[in-house]
Amino acid sequence: MRAHPGPRLRYGARRTGRAVTGRPPWMLLVPALAGTAFLVLPLAGLLVRAPWSTLPERLAQPQVLQALRLSLVTATVATGVCLLLGVPLAWLLARTSFPGRRLLRALITVPLVLPPVVGGVALLLVLGRRGLLGSWLESAFGVTLPFTTAGVVVAEAFVAMPFLVISVEGALRAADPRFEEAAATLGASRWTVFRRVTLPLIAPGVAAGAVLCWARALGEFGATITFAGNFPGTTQTMPLAVYLALETDPEAAVVLSLVLLAVSVLILAGLRERWVSRV
Amino acid sequence: MRRPGPDSPQHGGLRARLAVERPGFRLDVALEVAAGEVVALLGPNGAGKTTALRALAGLTPLTGGSIELDGRALHTLPAERRPVGVVFQDYLLFPHLSALDNVAFGPRCQGASRAEARRAAAELLERVGLAGHASARPRRLSGGQAQRVALARALAVRPRLLLLDEPLAALDAHTRLEIRSGLRRHLADFDGATVLVTHDPLDAMVLADRLIVIEDGAVVQQGTAAEVARRPRTRYVARLVGLNLYRGAADGPEVTVEGVVFSVTERLHGPVFVAFSPAAVALYRSRPDGSPRNLWRARIDGIERYGDNIRVHLDGPITASADVTPAAVADLGLSAGQEIWAAVKATETHAYPA
């Protein structure tokens, strides 16, 4: 595509009179608008094609509520698990140095680029009934994870944790470590420093990471269906229900999608107001 | 952990040799500070003052030497177990805690209950005159208030060694004056050893009992402010105290510096320092009559305002500063690049062994 010489010249001429501000260049504006349309139009399509007349009764169906509840609960528990394990992991990556730290960080980011289905297969190989850890878990504790609600949480946490770790590690690197030194001179142990100084300082980063993590867990599909299956009531989360409905009853799929969209937007918007914008 | 209270033995104070080696930098200084004494580490940027302070606090590991406080080894303890209070250059008050909770942080870490810690913190805030700001977050405090909260926070751990890193550097000139005198009072009340780092000679002279000048990681001079100001031993110290300083060879009443002969009142032999004030230098357009001593030909390198006077920077066999009145500058028609004669009275030069 060729550049538009006209606007560029006019822009150049304006620059002599007015500093750097002015109309955004077409070369940026046009793709930006196209990008906006690309992201927003499918959502608009969902709203347009929704069966509004039958919506109330479809929403009241027990399967919908069941899937929605399961999705919200598992995404929230998975986020909790990610916080519990991911924040200390991020701290380790940001505040200590040990041989293999770079390798560890690289490994942790693998689930970000791994197709979730592959993640699900990997989970099955390790935590499945005949898996490396799974067989031991079953014989020692009688615990089986695949095809259970706990398995859904495991699959979601596996896929979502890198988002949290990366965002918290970024917050830790941005936080001034001298506050931690000041706390040490006041007699604080490293744990107290972490709890009373580091954590409050990076709270916005942790919250942003948790939101990202929760959103990723809520939308998880591939790893969940592979590792936990698709059983209504125990492992069938909203994305799974949408996919299944698409094959049998497309209108139901639209309704479920609409619900998922509404919940995501509502919660993200609510949290964004409070936390994310402060980062 | 227990820290010694004010009733613990007073003998000893701080006795340390700090060696810190890093690629391209080496610090090796010995310090002795009695309990109740305030010592200022003075030096140009990059001299190693802050590194020395961090080493005392335990934030930078020593590569050699030792630290002893009140007769006990300190260098073997981690930072959080040293009975040391630190006031950092930009205070580093915890932004998420109120002034009161900032001060109460130390006592809490030492195992005091929340109520006890807050009571102690409130007392300290009152002592520094900030009882009314106890609930304020640090970003609502002015620079001077933040400095006092930082001091209260450092004192709250009942330290035996108080460290202050450029405690007044972040303040504007007006606040500085007021905070400096307040700080002086608080330091006088403190019964442990105090080490403060500054590059401002005025802060050092007002706040400290004794100065230790550090350059390039080593102690170049120490003594009371008066001693240091009277007999500077490096260019840096001379510039701080506003003197021209030269190293020369003495032979009785005469000292030769780069071919310029100075008559001095002292009788010395061998290597000596000669110092004189810029105000003692007189400038002439043509060679004045009389003795050729204390007289040299100079080229004007630059002219700038200096208080009510004009400071003339001279180049030539020796570089020097001369303070003259604006009227003299006009009369002599001085300008940069001009060649002139400079002279200084024998009674105003001061020589001492190098």
TrEMBL record, chain B:
Keywords of the record: ATP-binding, Cell membrane, Ion transport, Iron, Iron transport, Membrane, Molybdenum, Nucleotide-binding, Transport
Molecular function terms, GO-annotated: ABC-type ferric iron transporter activity; ABC-type quaternary ammonium compound transporting activity; ATP binding; ATP hydrolysis activity
Domain ABC transporter, first and last residues per copy: 9-241
E.C. no: 7.6.2.9
A GO cellular component entry from the record: membrane
Main enzyme class: translocase
Alphabetized InterPro entries for the sequence: AAA+_ATPase, ABC_SmlMolc_Importer, ABC_transporter-like_ATP-bd, ABC_transporter-like_CS, ABC_transpr_FbpC, Mo/tungstate-bd_C_term_dom, Mop_domain, P-loop_NTPase
Keyword Transcription regulation: no
Residues in Mop domain copies: 289-353
One Pfam family recorded for the sequence: TOBE
GO BP, sorted A to Z: molybdate ion transport
PANTHER family: SPERMIDINE/PUTRESCINE IMPORT ATP-BINDING PROTEIN POTA (PTHR42781), SPERMIDINE_PUTRESCINE IMPORT ATP-BINDING PROTEIN POTA (PTHR42781:SF4)
Name of protein: ABC-type quaternary amine transporter
Organism: Planomonospora venezuelensis
